[in-house]
Amino acid sequence: MEVLKKPIVTEKFTAQNEVGKYAFEVAKTANKVEIKKAVEKLYGVTVEKVTTMRTQGKLKTKNTKAGVVSGRKPMVKKAVVSLKAGDVIDFYSGI
C-alpha cells in the first residue's frame, strides 16, 4: 500500500510551509504512525506531529441532452505534517 499519494500544493498550505507544516494526500487506510514513517523515510526529515482529516467529495451536477446528471467526487484523506525546527521539504527540487 502506498501511504503518501501526492503533496498538496495550494495557496493555503504553501503559506504553512514557512512555519514547518506540509500537507499530503494520503491513503484512506493510512494511520498517523504510517504517515510519519513514510515522510521521514522519503524526505529524510524529523516529523514532530501528524494531523489527519477526511474531506467529503463535492457534489457535482451536469446538464446533458438526456437531462441532469449528478454525481460526487471521491472522498480524500489529507495529512498535515509538522516538522522539527530547521527541517525543510523542497517539492520543486526535481524540476
Structure, described:
- The chain is an alpha+beta fold and 95 residues long.
- It has a single domain (4-83), classed as 2-Layer Sandwich (Alpha-Beta Plaits).
- The protein is 19% helix and 41% strand.
- It has helices at residues 11-16, 32-43; strands at 4-7, 21-26, 47-55, 59-64, 67-72, 76-83.
- Strands 1-2-6-3 form a four-stranded antiparallel beta sheet. A two-stranded antiparallel ribbon has the order 4-5.
- Strand 4 (59-64) and strand 5 form a beta hairpin.
Shape: elongated
Distance between the termini: 26 Å
Number of strands: 6
Poorly predicted parts:
none
Structural class: alpha+beta
Q: Give me the Rg, rounded.
A: 16 Å
Main sheet specs: 4 strands, antiparallel
Roughly what fraction of the amino acids lie in strands? Answer: 35-45%
Count up the helices. 2
Q: Biggest sheet: strands side by side, in what order?
A: 1-2-6-3
CATH architecture classification: 2-Layer Sandwich
What is the CATH class designation?
Answer: Alpha Beta
CATH topology annotation: Alpha-Beta Plaits
**Helix proportion:** 10-25%
Rounded mean pLDDT score: 91
The CATH superfamily is known as RRM (RNA recognition motif) domain
